[in-house]
């Protein structure tokens, strides 16, 4: 779909449909809606007074203009109460409008970014509007072969603005939002793809496609190179699969040579059966999504390049499968990690932390200003925080605050869990340095404590995205399935990153 910014007004544009956003607690129609209402004989006022459309959040109504406007249809979408309005409400509303247009099998519609009496910056309003449209219209249809002609798609959306001085801001913000939304959709595609079509090698190929893209350099290390680096924790997990592991590095150089890198580390389990500690068969198909953290890192690097962020970023993705083959690692095994520290394996289904341990150690080669890892790491995080919240743990308050603020701005909610010293006792091993499972109690926290042993002294934050990586039901701009979580969160933090820190 294409987004266009055009000078004009909604009341005068000739198009299949326009969308208007209205607040629930506005007694009278105002602003551009009032102009349109007057042109169509007070139909908007009438439908509000009749109670058929109240403006409640995500409520919609369809009006036909009967030739009184150049457009044939008006989609009314509720924003809810004015005092509760924020950018998440706008994303939801614009997604709802776009979906209504698609359901009507229309190809083009127009909308305005002007929201009456709001204090939010114009660029934030525009980005949220465009993100809602793009992400709300996302569909994963790659493997559909029957009745493809019945798949409905919207081709174009127009943002109309009559004031010349606002057009430049809107165009720039719309372009940024299109880039970010494209990266999220790219990640959703990767995560939704089944494991037979998304092996470690294929994931590496997707990364290689970014090589040479505006200061991006990609390097793929094979099994021999991984062995030479001493990544035996990573290799232990990989042993059970016939699919060769890959260690993916992406370096984006948008900053000066003196600037340190920001390291992003993503878990890349393209399928996780649990290994010898095999998972229940129910919902095991969802384990194709265990590479959502690695996919998010790819999406962030892609968007950072397209946005020309003035930063140096390195993305690290250990990619493998975890299967119970004849050579698979076993409970009771001891693995020597790249750091030299030894790990007793109690549970082969606690594999994500094992591959991340070596990736975090490798990140230290860059002497980064910060390390952020993303992983669908623990089911315990879903038990603790539910399906829609990211668990955050880390060692640096400034870095955690940046992530927290980004979560509030993007609607990708994060909640901090503690890493108190008492938890460290739970991962000590009697026969090795650490064990890879601290048991059921505080499972999300002890997993993060384990990772902290390999992050060194660098500012580090761990994001457990096990819940929000895969939505079990539709939300306004996140259709059921892979969400692409983490991309907008990290990009917001990176776009506001101080150049010297």
Textual characterization of the structure:
The protein is built from 15 helices and 20 strands. It has helices at 31-39, 43-49, 87-103, 122-136, 164-192, 200-208, 223-228, 232-238, 292-306, 352-363, 379-385, 397-410, 421-424, 443-452, 487-495, and strands spanning 2-7, 17-22, 60-64, 73-78, 108-111, 156-161, 216-221, 246-253, 261-266, 268-272, 312-322, 334-336, 342-344, 370-375, 390-394, 414-416, 434-435, 460-464, 470-471, 481-482. Strands 7, 8, 9, 10, 11, 14, 15, 16 and 18 form a 9-stranded mixed β-sheet that branches. A 6-stranded mixed β-sheet has the order 1-6-5-2-4-3, covered by helices on one side. A 3-stranded mixed β-sheet has the order 12-13-17. Strand 12 (334-336) and strand 13 (342-344) form a beta hairpin. Helix 4 runs parallel beside helix 5 (164-192) and helix 12 (397-410) packs across helix 15 (487-495). The longest helix is centred in the middle third of the chain and has 29 residues, at 164-192. It is elongated and about 80 Å long.
Which structural traits does this protein have?
single chain; 501 residues; alpha/beta; Leucine Aminopeptidase, subunit E, domain 1; Aminopeptidase; 2 domains; nine-stranded mixed sheet
